[in-house]
Design brief:
- 2 copies of one chain form a homodimer.
- The first copy, chain A, has about 110 residues and is mainly β.
- Chain A has one domain (about 10-105): Jelly Rolls.
- Chain A has strands at about 5-15, 15-20, 25-30, 35-40, 45-50, 55-60, 65, 75, 80-85, 90-95, 100-105.
- In chain A, the strands form 2 sheets. In chain A, strands 1, 2, 3, 4, 6, 9 and 11 form a 7-stranded antiparallel β-sheet that branches.
- The interface between A and B is medium-sized, with 31 and 31 residues.
Amino acid sequence: MSITAQLDGVAVSTQANVYFDGRCVSHTVTFADGTRKSVGVILPAQLSFGTGAPEIMETVAGSCSVLLPGASEWQTFGPGEKFSVPGNARFEIRVEGEPYHYICHFG
Amino acid sequence: MSITAQLDGVAVSTQANVYFDGRCVSHTVTFADGTRKSVGVILPAQLSFGTGAPEIMETVAGSCSVLLPGASEWQTFGPGEKFSVPGNARFEIRVEGEPYHYICHFG
């Protein structure tokens, strides 16, 4: 799987998004066409996230286990792998050992 | 003091720099001319950082107390304020309450 090592030609917000007492930290990135993504890290934890817009989570480094909405089994995702979450939904993500680095694509 | 809300026309590394078990998380930003900076967050903690190149730390949100190399008194920095650290030096930084958001300028 190919890894997206950097996002080019963007503006990055200098203030981070800090969730769950810092177990998840991200920075928002805006492309020239107005598209927004975020780059972030989840530290070892099990967290429950709600989505507004649909999201595609792309793994940059580390791995996570995910329980998607309506799923009964956890799935594991490693570097270069992606998973999709519908809008207005909730999913569980579990990170063990090393931090999980991701790009979040919206919409 | 004016706040730098975003950095424009940059490339952002998608893998974060994670220090001190995640008490400090940053992403590296590269400008078209090759200049590198980082945007990061320090969660409540007292941390000791070593510099390679000289650094200018610019506060985006939150505040911190800093003991600069050779100083005997802590100084406090809030949004829009900056402090400089020489290269190959060590400084102490203490964050209490809310996360401290910063831009680190090198060189």
